[in-house]
Amino acid sequence: MTQVIDAAAYRFQADLPDAIDAYVATLRRSQLYAFTYRGADLSRLIGIELYFRLVNDPALRAAYGACRFGGQNSEFGPNVPLSEVAARVYPHLTKDRRTPSLSLSKATSCIAASTQSLIARLRHRRDGASIATPASEARAVVMLAISRRFFLYLLPIRDRINGPVCWLIPEDAPWAAEIEALGDTVVHIRDSFDEPPRGFVSVPLQNWTLTLQRFDAYLDALRSLNPAVVVVVEGNHPEDEIVARAADVNGARSLCLQQGWSPFIHSGFRHMRFDAFCAWGQAFADMLAPYNPRQRFLVSGSPVVSPVDTKVNHAAKAISFFLQRDSLVISEAAWRGMLEFVDWCATTFPEWQILVREHPAIPFFSEDFAAIRQRVNVTFCPASEMSLQEVLDRSRIAVAIFSTTLIESLARRVAPLIVNVTGAARYFPDLEAQGIAIEVHDYAGARAKMADLIDGAADAAIARMPQAVGRYFGATADGALGNIVQEIRQLEAS
Fold this sequence. Notes:
43% of the residues lie in helices and 12% in strands. The chain contains 16 helices and 15 strands. A 7-stranded parallel β-sheet has the order 5-4-3-6-7-8-9, sandwiched between helices. Strand 6, helix 9 and strand 7 (253-257) form a beta-alpha-beta unit. Residues 72-77, 97-114, 116-121 and 123-136 have low confidence and may be disordered.
């Protein structure tokens, strides 16, 4: 029988960020300014790039499985050769974190490289500081929209800003026309380059030519736009960190907005150094703080979901499923199991409406939904047709594996059922321990607990929510927009 939970996959994903941290720290100890480029410290950027490059690396995962699990739970043999980058991280992944010894010649080379990096850093700091703006000229707020979803997330904030707004978007972004229709300035960032990186490239950065070229492109864009503040969404993407570091060199401030929640605090959510991070509630700031000691957090609220004191629709009788797949910790068996669970709920509770919503970044796969499409009480709720808040207001129970919606459902007084088939011991944060959710680790348990929720456990969880919701959502959606714009103005003035 196919296992639903791939424990090896979870352990690999959990251990990889720690290994990357150790690898980066080792390089920094051996070479001062190892990750400095054109005056910017790119160590966090390289950590993020490493994570997304390696988390789906089959050879590295196989080598890790062979070491930790005797080569089981992997379709790849333990002798698959590792890439150069993976081979450098692998000793740290297997807990062999010895700092390599430096020969005299290598040490001399490191000192020379460090000196050149320091000179470059000072030069580019000076260049960035030399840019002056006439007092009468308003400096634009620059927003990074690497997807249409993030553009839509930023649009209400843009509408609140009383001043010029510019957008940084990918070169071939199909949502460019929507932005241009607003009358705002749009800068397209290329994804391929003919010229080499323009600054001194240290040995640790020599595997990251495209990353450095993209930094050059963003730095050019920001120097032409000369913003006071740049705004990014989520902060876990390499582009977010590139823009923040380019802004820093250019003398601008950076603001990161929480857009969702990942219970896996991977490299994209560690070592953040934005000038400010707007969290939906204090609970999120508290969970991120241990991994981000240099980050200043403030509570803004969510600009999408407003907390309510009582349920909007007291007669709501729907179960909403927020589907996820294409994650290392969601096996094919887990995905199939969730589809079967949807179908089971539709047939077992025909008097309940079953609302099915895909992840905004992962559209429905039609062949996977053939069975449940036949159920008369199943309604598909794509993001383009129904807002998240509307889905939640029609629901009494929300089901997901580890989706952000498990927490967002609290704001609208919907009881979460966490089907934790990832391999993690508990969902983070532990909502069940707070009495406001139910968590299970297999689909047999999900069926049993769904019956309990329908029989009254959902109402009991909803009744306990007022004690917790305020910690996750510090303001209404309208209040959040006001708080974010206020922070932008404060950063402009600082």
